[in-house]
TrEMBL record:
Its main location: membrane. One of its GO terms (cellular component) is membrane. Residues 405-425, 453-472, 942-961 are annotated as: Disordered. Residues 405-424 have a biased composition (Low complexity). It is found in: Membrane. The chain crosses the membrane at residues 740-761, 773-793, 805-832, 839-858, 893-919. Residues 26-172, 712-912 form the ABC-2 type transporter transmembrane domain. Keywords: Membrane, Transmembrane, Transmembrane helix. It comes from Limosilactobacillus reuteri subsp. rodentium (strain DSM 17509 / CIP 109821 / 100-23). InterPro entries: ABC2_TM, Phage_infect_YhgE_C, Phage_infect_YhgE_N, Serralysin-like_metalloprot_C, T7SS_ABC-Transporter, xxxLxxG_rpt. Residues 944-954 have a biased composition (Basic and acidic residues). Pfam families: ABC2_membrane_3. This is YhgE/Pip C-terminal domain protein. GO terms for molecular function: ABC-type transporter activity.
Length: 961
């Protein structure tokens, strides 16, 4: 066994390339670790070199009397912040830098940043949005660092804004305290005022009760108003009827007075007979006294009604004046109508030449369109002729096809028949080719194409046919002839239809042109006729307007005359009234005179002279009475009209009485509701009074509490930043390099073991004929020493390069244990399975990269890697190295991890022994897929041109027996 181990080392020493390879392999883990770890040794401590652009678009605003410029404050804070490399640029520069990979992020402070900060107390506050853009494709870790910086920046801005709000709120709090003192005083005044209000409400309630009582009385009193109004309307109608009777009596009285005046002469002549009739007069003096009394009473009644007559005369004067004003307006309107008709006549006269010019222009367009229509119809006639010519050509083709069919059926000599048929077919084809298809419809074109195809087929068949095929050729020609006949019939029909349609269109076009010419002539005549009619109509309209104007003038004159007559009637009624009073006075005098007359009858004889004088006076009084009666009779119509108007007005009053009664009822209901709600009003005033007292007390207490609050800038800062983080290290890891070192060191050791088993000839047998355990011992010894050297070199140099280790002994022990476990696994796979085993070792490396938990916590890793996590050797190496470097896991945990690694190494070294025994037993010892590499790395002078598997088992290192 020892000789085999010595031989293995002798091979290494004597082969300079192998010795150099083994030596370099020992430093591969260190080189792997140092280059990787130093590249990411402290990335989070160097974030001040990560460029981030800052664009400030914020516009300052005024808030609570102070200027708020959050954007500028943020920029000033960032200038003092060295967590990132803040570069303050314009929006254009930031966009250019992001697109040219200069910046990892761009922070934009929008223009409404400060404005939104002032909306916190508004109904709809707006969020202060700080925009930032990152480029994860440039570097994802850079994006994460930028996002972390933005989170801290956002927290800082929130603290600043909250501090500003708190400062303003504290100031307002003191203002509120002062205001609450004033409010408490005001509430006290409100309480005093509420007492006065309560007294006023009590008086108001009493007044409402009185008003309600009065309205209720009014409601009861209004009820008889309807019947009274009805009686008043009935009485007015009775009055109108009485006045009508009165006017009739006045007429009779006028007749009687006329007769009296006519008989005055007879009275004078009868004075001479007076003496003789005194006896008779004395006997009738009683009746005379009675008549005088009745006359006196009638004149008194007439005098009492003269006031109503005067009122009717006044209404007549007002109405006549309104009529005069209306006729003036009518006269002015008819004058305007006459002027408008003249203007209309002038406009119609000016418009007729324009209309005639338009008709002339339209006539020219009509002639031009008619000419174009005739020109467009000319090709239609040509199309009909072409279709007839085409039908004729198709008839010739059909006759030639008939000849071909007869020739095919006759069964004549093949050569002659073929020659004749070919000539006929060629003639038919030429005829078809000469047909112009541009004027055919789609169906005719299809049939023509079918005929050409059939001719081509017949021509081809005619050159190879035999006597037995004549019938078939005749059948084809018959089908072709039928198709041509159908095509000829269709073309003939199309030609006939086209000719007929063309003639119809030509006829219609000529009729249209004639109609248009007739329309032009008729339109000129119509324009002239319409012009005359319009001129005549407008002239008649002007004449009618003048006539109306004249009538309106006459009406106006009549209305003015009516107004004048009404005024005269008004004056006459005044005179009539005075005459009635005078007649009444004369009647009284007449009664007195008749009394005296009766009394002096006895003295009649002696006073005959006086009687004559009295009769003269009587005659004059009768004349005056006649004049008064005439005036009274003249005004009777106005008196009747006034009575009728009075009756109508009282009727309208009677119609409005129900609405008045309903309004009074509603008023009564409203006042009753006011009275019913008065107790609730009194109760509410009492509660309001109590609430005012409580409000005053509460406001005073609140003002005392608010004014007792003491604030300072530290209080505002407490509002803005109420919490602070206090960090305590359970275990201290200086930087990212120390955190990643366990993972990288373990990975480097495994890679070193993998490289060793690629480079070193592990299947080479140093001495043949030895036991398998000696072969196993030589390989295990070399591999273990090499991996131990790897671990020691890696750990020592990494510590010299700045890796701080808390437990150095455990650090070296864990690295060596993992190196032995890795060498055992890789050597077992490479020895037993050769190159496939090395591939499996690479796969195991890939699995350990993701499942060992070297970078991220396993709790956030995929489930598959969590399943295999505890079955991977690197898991225990990483855990042990973490505790060795920074602590925190416990010494017992490191011992547990090292124990697991030692067990793994022992198990796989044991499996390696079993595998090497199997290889030697099956004569695979010394045979490898890397044989050329094995020969190259053998002892110097050992290469003899033979592979190891070609040597005899008893052949020595130099190829000798």
């Amino acid at each position: 066994m020892w000789s085999m181990i010595k031989g293995e080392f002798r091979h290494i020493i004597h082969n300079r390339l192998l010795l150099l390879s083994v030596t370099v392999i020992c430093f591969i883990p260190f080189l792997y670790s140092i280059f990787f770890l130093k590249s990411v040794w402290d990335p989070y401590g160097s974030t001040r070199n990560l460029p981030v652009a800052v664009v400030n678009k914020d516009i300052p605003v005024e808030y609570q009397g102070r200027k708020m410029d959050v954007g500028k404050q943020t920029v000033n804070e960032l200038k003092k912040n060295h967590q990132l490399k803040w570069e303050f640029v314009s929006a254009k520069e930031a966009k250019y830098g992001m697109s040219h990979r200069k910046y990892y992020a761009v922070v934009t402070i929008p223009k409404d940043f400060s404005e939104n900060a002032t909306t916190v107390l508004q109904k709809h506050p707006k969020t202060m949005k700080l925009h930032y853009q990152t480029n994860g494709s440039l570097n994802y870790i850079g994006q994460v660092i930028a996002q972390t910086g933005m989170t801290r920046l956002n927290e800082k801005i929130r603290a600043q804004v909250t501090n500003a709000y708190a400062t303003v709120m504290f100031k307002q709090l003191h203002v509120v305290g002062k205001g609450m003192n004033k409010a408490a005083d005001g509430a006290q005044q409100i309480g005093t005022g509420m007492v006065t209000l309560s007294d006023g409400v009590n008086r108001y309630v009493a007044g409402v009760s009185q008003v309600n009582n009065g309205v209720q009385t009014l409601r009861v009193s209004v009820a008889p108003l309807a019947s009274g109004a009805q009686q008043l309307a009935t009485g007015s109608q009775t009055l109108a009827n009485g006045i009508m009777q009165y006017t009739g009596g006045v007429s009779l009285l006028g007749n009687g007075v006329g007769q009296l005046m006519a008989n005055s002469g007879a009275l004078n002549s009868g004075a001479n007979q007076l003496s003789s009739g005194l006896s008779t007069l004395m006997a009738n003096s009683g009746a005379l006294n009675s008549g005088a009394s009745q006359l006196n009473a009638g004149l008194g009644t007439l005098d009492s009604r003269s006031g109503e007559l005067q009122s009717g005369a006044n209404q007549l004067a007002s109405g006549s004046q309104a009529l005069a004003n209306g006729t003036n307006s009518l006269a002015s309107g008819t004058s305007a109508l006459a002027n408008g008709s003249k203007d209309l006549n002038a406009r119609i006269t000016n418009m007729i030449p324009t209309l005639q010019n338009s008709m002339t222009a339209m006539s020219g367009d009509v002639q031009q369109n008619a000419t174009a229509l005739r020109n467009s119809l000319t090709p239609l006639a040509g199309t009909s002729s072409s279709l007839n010519e085409l039908a004729s050509q198709l008839g010739g083709i059909s006759s030639q096809l008939g000849k071909l069919q007869q020739a095919a059926q006759s069964g004549s000599t093949q050569t002659t028949s073929s020659s004749n048929s070919n000539s006929n077919i060629d003639a038919a084809k030429n005829a078809l080719s000469g047909i112009d298809t541009s004027k055919l419809d789609d169906a005719s074109k299809a049939k023509l194409a079918e005929a050409e195809n059939a001719l081509n087929s017949a021509n081809n068949n005619s050159t190879t046919t035999t006597n037995n095929g004549n019938k078939e050729l005749a059948g084809q020609i018959g089908q072709l002839k039928g198709a041509v006949d159908q095509l000829q019939a269709a073309v003939s029909k199309s030609a006939a239809t086209a000719g007929q349609n063309t003639q119809q269109v030509m006829t219609a076009a000529q009729g249209l042109e004639n109609s248009l010419n007739s329309l032009q002539g008729n339109s000129n005549a119509a324009i002239s006729n319409i012009s005359g009619q319009l001129t005549s109509a407008t002239q008649r309209l002007a004449d009618g307007a003048n006539t109306v104007n004249a009538g309106a003038t006459t009406l106006n004159n009549g209305a003015n005359a009516l107004a004048t007559g009404a005024q005269t009637a008004q004056a006459g009624i005044g005179a009539y009234t005075a005459g009635v009073r005078s007649a009444a006075s004369g009647a009284n005098q007449l009664a007195s005179g008749i009394g005296q007359y009766t009394a002096g009858v006895a003295q009649a004889g002696a006073g005959a002279g006086q009687l004559a004088s009295g009769i003269g006076q009587y005659t004059a009084g009768v004349g005056q009475l006649g004049n008064g009666i005439a005036q009274l009779n003249a005004n009777s119509g106005a008196l009747n009209s006034g009575a009728a108007q009075l009756a109508g007005a009282l009727g309208q009053l009677n119609g409005q009485v129900p609405a008045l009664v309903a309004g009074v009822n509603q008023l009564a209901a409203g006042t009753q509701q006011l009275q019913d709600n008065s107790p609730a009003l009194i109760s509410g005033i009492a509660r309001l009074n109590a609430g005012a007292s409580q409000l005053a007390t509460s406001l005073a207490g609140g003002a005392k509490q608010i004014n007792g609050i003491k604030t300072s800038p530290r209080t505002a800062k407490m509002f803005a930043e109420p919490t602070a983080l206090k960090h305590t290290d359970y275990s201290y890891v200086p930087n990212y390099g120390h955190a990643l070192a366990p993972y990288v060191l373990s990975l480097a050791i495994y890679v070193g073991a993998l490289v060793f088993n690629f480079v070193y000839p592990i299947r080479r047998v140093a001495e043949f004929g030895k036991a398998p355990i000696a072969w196993w011992a030589s390989k295990v010894t070399v591999g273990s020493l090499v991996v131990t050297a790897m671990a020691i070199a890696e750990d020592a140099i990494m510590m010299a390069c700045g890796l701080t280790v808390i437990h150095p002994v455990a650090f070296f022990a864990t690295t060596i244990c993992f190196g032995l476990a890795s060498m055992a696994i890789v050597m077992f796979l490479s020895m037993l399975f050769d190159n496939p085993g090395r591939f499996f070792a690479m796969v195991l490396l890939m699995l350990q990269l993701g499942g060992s938990g070297g970078t991220f916590p396993m709790e956030i890793t995929m489930k598959f890697y969590n399943v295999i996590h505890w079955y991977l050797p690197m898991t225990y190496s990483i855990l042990g190295l973490r505790d060795s470097i920074s602590g925190g896991l416990g010494a017992h945990y490191t011992m547990f991890c090292n124990t697991v690694l030692i067990v793994i190494a022992i198990v796989f070294y044991a499996l390696l022994l079993v595998g090497m025994i199997w290889l030697q037993h099956h004569h695979y010892a010394g045979r490898s897929e890397l044989d050329n590499n094995q020969e190259l790395l053998g002892p110097e002078g050992d290469y003899d041109g033979m592979h190891l598997q070609e040597r005899r088992p008893n052949q020595g290192d130099n190829g000798e027996q």
